[in-house]
Each structure stands twice: as C-alpha cells, then as structure tokens.
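Shipment paperwork, digital attachment
Item: protein structure file
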Amino acid sequence: MGLTSAMYTGLSGLNANQTRIETIGHNIANANTTAFKASRTLFQTQFSQTLSMGTPPSDTSGGTNPTQVGLGTLVGATQRNVSQGSVETTGVPSDLAIEGSGYFIVRDPAGRSYYTRDGAFSLNSDNQLVTMDGNRVQGFGVDANSAIVPGTLQNLEIPVGRLSIARATENVTMDGDLSAAEQIATQGSRHVSQALVGAGGSAATADTVLTDLRSAALPGTPLFADGDVITVRGATRGGREVAAQEFTVGTTGSTLGEFAAWLQTALGIQADPALAGDPSVTVADGALVIRSNAGVPNAIEIATADVTSSNTAAALPFQLSQTAEAVGSGVFTSFTVYDSLGNPLQVNAAFTLEDTPDTGPVWRYLLEAPGTDVTPATYATGTVSFDTAGNFVAATGNQLALDRTGTGAATPVTVTLDFSGVNGQSTKVSNVIMADQDGYPSGTLNSFAVGSDGTITGIFSNGLSRALGQVAVATFANEAGLVAETDNLYSAGPNSGPAAVVAPGTLGAGAIRGGALEMSNVDLSREFIGLITSSTGFQAAGRVISVANEMLDQLLMTLR
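Attachment content:
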C-alpha cells in the first residue's frame, strides 16, 4: 500500500505541474493580446494520512509530534492578475484604453452585456462604435443641446460625414464702450429735390400721381410713364453703401407719396416720433424731402445721379441737393446671426448718443437686417442706459425678430441682444462689437476625439465641437471574480459583485486614454522561470513514480 500511495502522490505532482504549465502556456500565447490579464496557478497540499496525533509533555516524556504522511498536492486556485498593463499610443481615435479600474461595457447581438479592457474599437456601417467581433460599445447619449444624459446605456454612434448641425441664434452678447464724451445726436442729414408740380401746375403733394408729376422748371414734360423703372443706386448711409433697389411706376406704387414711403424703406430710414430729427421721406412744399436718422452714423448721402429712371426723357427725375448735415457722433458695427438652417443673416447696428441726463448717459441704437428676394428687411430701435459711473443699467428694444417666411427655416428668428458687458464711461473713442452669439452655421462632422472622462467630442466642418456621447465603464468590487469568456470578454461571476456603471474618472473608475490601447500585463521573464520550475517539478514527480515502480518490481522479484 505504501508504494502504491507513493505512485499516486507522484501522480498528483504531475497533474498539478501540468496545470501550471498550461496556465503559463496560456499567458505566453497571449503576451501580445490587447489588455490580456495573466493568471497564475497556486498549489495546496492534499490531506495527509495521520499515523499519530502526537502526545503532550508529561513528567516522564517531553511529548511527541504528530506523525503524518502527505498524499500529494492539488491545484488550489488559478488567480488572475488584474494589474494595469502598459499603454501604447496608436493615434487611432477609436482606440481606447482605461488607466485605472473599470471595464468597457459591450452588448452582443442577442442583447447580453459583457465587459472588456480591450479598447480596439472601430465604426461599423451604421457609424456605431463596435468591438472587433461586432459587439456594440455602450455609453451615455446626449440631449438636443449636446449635454450628456447619464443613467441610461445605449449604443454609441459617431456619424462621421453624415451628421450635420445648425442652430438659430437666440442670444447675442455685445461688448465694448459707448463713450459719454460723444456729441449728442440731434438731427440727421437733409436732402431736398427741385420744386415739383402736378399736371395742372399746382405744387405736388403726396397724392400726386407719378405719371402727372413734373419738374416746376419744365411743367410740360411728365417725369414718368406707367411701367417706368426708378433705380436707386450709389446712395450711402453713414458712409456705407445702400443696396440698389428698383421701383416700378404703376406696379410698386402710383403716387408720389407711395414712392416717398418706398424710398424711405430703401434708404433704411427708421421713422418714429420718439426719434430725434424727424427722420422720414416726405412731400413738403411741393418737394421731396429726405431726412435721415440723427447722427453721423445714420447720415444719408444721395446725389441726383443716384436716382435714375428708364424714361429717357427724364433720366434723372429728381435734382437733389443737401440742405443740412447730420449732427451727433456715434459708432457703427455689424455682426452675423443664423437661422435654424444655418443661413447667415447680417445685422447692422448704428449707435448714437441720445441724451446725458443726471441719471447717466442714454444711447440710441438702430438695428437693420437687410432683406432678400424672399424676406423683407427688418428694422428695430432701442436704447442703452448707463448710470453716472458708466455701468450698464438697462436696455430697451433689444429683441430683433427676423422674418424667414419662404426660406424653409423656422420663422421668425428672435434674437435678444445683451448689452450688460458694454461700458458707458467717457473713453477716447466708442467701439462696440459682438462678443458672442449662440447660433452656428451648418457643419458636417469631420472627426472626433475621446476625452479622459469618456466624452466623445465631434469636430465639425464649421469649426464647432459638440459632445456626441460618453463612454461608460463598469467597476466591480472583486475584479478577479469575473468569468473570462472568449474574445477578450468577461462576464459577471458569483464572486465579482454586480457591475457599477459610472462615468470614467468617477467613483473609483479609471480615466480614458483616447488613441491608445492597453497592452498585456504578461511578464515573460517570470513566465520562463515558471516554465523551468514547473518542468523540474513535473520531472521530479515522474521520478517518484518510476522509483516506486522499481521498488515494486524488486519486491515482486523477492517474492518469486
């Protein structure tokens, strides 16, 4: 029985060392496997055959120790080394590595969740982030404002080349200085035409039909006929050229008053009883009178040659002369806003000092958004008030509604101007600019990058960047308790604890390294040493069996 037990004891050594060699071979085979975690095999003694439990000391004896004969070894455990592997930079934006604790969460086609440290991801034809085997990477999505929505896992999509964004402007922030040392704007420029009469020779009025309108110097020659086109081109407002426009007699309007109203709009003059200088285009005392808005930034410059007619008999129908100059200084600025389709819309703003009461200076601004063939021009006016220290107090009329009917965009585009960053002290010069606005033009997703917190940031062709989602990670109370599956995957085990799904860098989870992969943590030097000791142990266990066999042979030969 003793020799037979010795053979079985040697056999246990063979089995244990064989298992260890298998573990080492598995580690070495995966030395270059992405994010592979090496394992080690640990041995334990099997139960021993007890021949004597021993005796305690007595008056006549010092006591004896137990007498036990070991019966070999067994595999106690195969433990996984979950320590961090080195991180290799790849430059591929879809490659991800976790520095610290945690696992990527992936979902197979059947909807089962698995966990992995292997971040060699790519985009499939649906622009979803997937593993090499097509399992979809899980994370948190974003809302309409590109804010991360935590809590609910979903497939991560990065639609490079397919996603386009645009947003209508809602808020514009202005910055700069409106100097209280400027000259108060009290009047605008004034231009008057030659004396005009009707067909009967009486002074022209707003009701005079254009086809009856004549110059008082040539009462026998009508200035216009039905269908004549009056073109305004070359006029300026505040030194800025006014867009050319056309008026068709009998179609756009038929009377001198209707032409005056059209010209007022064409020149961008805002008529309002609250505005200084009585800005308007009117018919007074038998002449066409053009009064600009107050201040040099609004002054109209228009000459006789700037108003032409297709009627060759009166190609220059109005002889215009300037009778007053604009009074009051100020500043002009222009900025761009966007509609819901990302179309750029220019907004012009002219600022003039309106008053300097004891409570602080008050500035008047005129807004204009030029129209198109589809949409009309938009005009608005308001004030900006400051206290006696030049600090912003309040603004009126700071909402601009832009009509986008017929363009396919949401209409109107309502823009609110924020003047709280503008100062009203007596600076050397006035200067106002747009500091920021929250709209943006249409742009297509060109590329993306993943930050340390797992946020996937898309870079668009219009220069903007927006969050597209966030990679989620799962942490476990006992990482070594995960059950290894194929394809670098793990599943939760009975002793791993449940998965705690969190954002990278929070609650003990590691950070994400974009454009990098975690390497295997296999230590080849240690594995080679393990091979030597395991093969030596295997040979020695085999020698035990062979020696026991030889002894049995000798015993049998003795019994013959």
